[in-house]
Amino acid sequence: MLAILPALSILLSTAEPQSEPRPEPLATLRLENGADAKPTGLVVSTAVAFAPGVVPSCDLLGVDAPAEIEPLERHRDGSVSWARVRVLPSWKALRSSFVEIRADGARPPLPSTPLGEVPRFRLVLEDFEGVERSAEVGGALKPIEKSALREAARAGGRHRLVSPKVGALEELLIFEAFVERFAGESFVFLTLVLRNDPPTAPWGPIRFRSYRIEPIDPNVTMAIAWPELNGCALEKRADGGARGWLLPRGAKDLWLGDGQTKAWRILLDASGNTARTPALARALEKPMLPGLQPAYLVRTQAWGDFGAMVLGPPPQTAARLAQDEFARARRSREYGWNGAFGDVKGTHQTGSPRNGLSSDGVLRTLQTGMREWFDLTFERALQQSLRPIVRSIRAADHPNVLLFEGMPHPKWPDRLGREIPLDPRLAAWREGTSGTWMRETHGWNGFDEEHFTIDDLYAVHLLTGDPWVRFELESIGQAILTYPFAKKAVASASARSDGWLLRGLVQLHRVTGDRAYLDAASHLVRGMDARRGKGEIKYLNEAAPDPRQLTNHPFEMPWQVAIAVNGLVYYFEQTGDPLARTIALDAADFLVKDGWNAKTGVFKRCVATDGSGAFLDEREPGGTQSWIASALVAAYRLEPKPEYRILADGLYRVVKATNATFDRGGQQWSWWQSYLRWAFDTDAARRPAPASGPANPRDR
Q1: What distances in angstroms separate CA 77 from CA 53, 73, 635, one per listed residue?
Q2: Residues 235, 243: contact at Cβ < 8 Å?
Q3: How far apart are CA 38 and CA 351, in angstroms?
Q4: Closest Cα partner for 133 from 81, 170, 108?
Q5: Which residues contact 595 (CB under 8 A, 6 or more apart)?
Q6: Which end of the chain is more exposed for a tag (fewer CB within 10 A), N or C?
Q7: What is the C-alpha to C-alpha distance for residues 664 and 328, in angstroms, rounded to an integer?
Q8: CA distances (Å), origin 213, targets 247, 352, 499, 600
Q9: Beta bridge partners of 145
Q10: What distance in Å separates the CA atoms of residue 316 and residue 697, rounded to the nearest whole number?
């Protein structure tokens, strides 16, 4: 044996140099295709999460497919928590494409082929009297995002009369087209928006008979997302081309109120490759998600306000519960062209059913891998277009307007022309659109500050990069920037609205990068400081006596204070504003000292702020109590006081014991994530490691 060692050493020295092994993947994207053909040529825009400290810069990331990566959000240590990934998968297999991301910086070259052309199309609006107005779109559009792989562009205008008609309006209603086109491909994804929200000279509610889209080239293939749910219909024209009826023909309730819009997602493909149409159409209404394992996402600490996520019940139980709940959700949601799709049309709802510490539907997808929950959220997010908001204005250009719930407040000087009488030629078109509260808008209202949430839109923006969703978020944001607190130190209507607004302002800053949102949040915090109690009782908003709550005493509500604490801590972690930290801890101490009822084991509903000791007990131990548990966890992040943990634990035991479906979840399920993550981590830290290896508490 010893005799052959020299020969072996010679062979090794003359052999080819051994290549360095590639590093293990940091993450593997699993892109699922549910159609019967490969979506070849589709650039997937999605997002991938990373744990703290793993990715200091996206420039260091390598991908085994042509890709572009940029940071979206960062952890508190500055490392990347979410990165936008635009990738051109190979689709070697029909059902799945796997893309690995490594820390070696290696990426295949990006394609040098030009971006595909936008097929021209015609929009036709048939008014209430049967007169048609149309618009044509295609060719050169205004880019809003552009890279080697993908361009997002935008076009808009008004529908003009097809044939002259004496006395008729030449132009009516606005259209907006958001188009995504891809390198070397002749298909596009289109989000088309019909808008009745002119910044000035409004039309009022507008009735019409129909709205349709027609590709100019008869060889262009078309598909519309969710046609059955929206009442859309596709048919062939006489020349063999496609025609898409976007609204139910013959319906009697076709109108848009002032400030309302309606959005559709549409595929236009000029390639003639109809075999892949089903795959592209599926991706149109079911965007490709990263397919990261739930346990991986838990470890990244990247989801939600505070990076808190648990897997909940065992996988088999979770899957069964998710399937059961999904079936109930699909049955119970209101569909139709103006249906809420599971949202709440009128946001003035007791119990804030739309609000959480994240999008509840997307949370369930990330926890279970069951993408149907994301699909429900995506549908619901698109219906957001029906909320009345005056879009496409900048708050800085209108210093005397208040877009209260998205529309000009009648008592502010600038009403954007809403004080001018409406065009009398359209009087007949407005008949039957008013008479009961919010009838003009089919029951929809804008975002009221006491229930403000953009979590669904924010989650869809994060995971897909959809250009229309960003536009909608910017429109909502500009409306919020017209509120008084955006300009001076003043609080909002209540402690809960302070909390909701702080969360939303931080999210809007993350989406847009516009410092104005953090400045508005700073004004709001200083307004809270001026209003709050700083004596023995540190309330945030002293409410007048109310027969529905505490009859003979001014009072504060602990559950509303809890919402404010969550918002304050979220804002503090983004900015380091010391005043937000001070107020958050004072408010948390108020919950502990004045809000807790040791006899019942839950927090009081109302607490007198006059020192009398009067209070009103909470009648329902679930629901709003969950906001208090998460607030104590948030305060513990700032200062680990034992009493925060003790009361959060006690509240959890009471609520779980009185809620038979706690493990299944509910409207407030996302609020318990921070407590459950915290409890599991601290409990696991006290347990000895199992014999099979070290404990990893973040796999729960």
Answers
A1: 7, 11, 19
A2: yes
A3: 45
A4: 170
A5: 558, 561, 603, 604, 607, 628
A6: N
A7: 13
A8: 11, 38, 43, 61
A9: 152
A10: 20
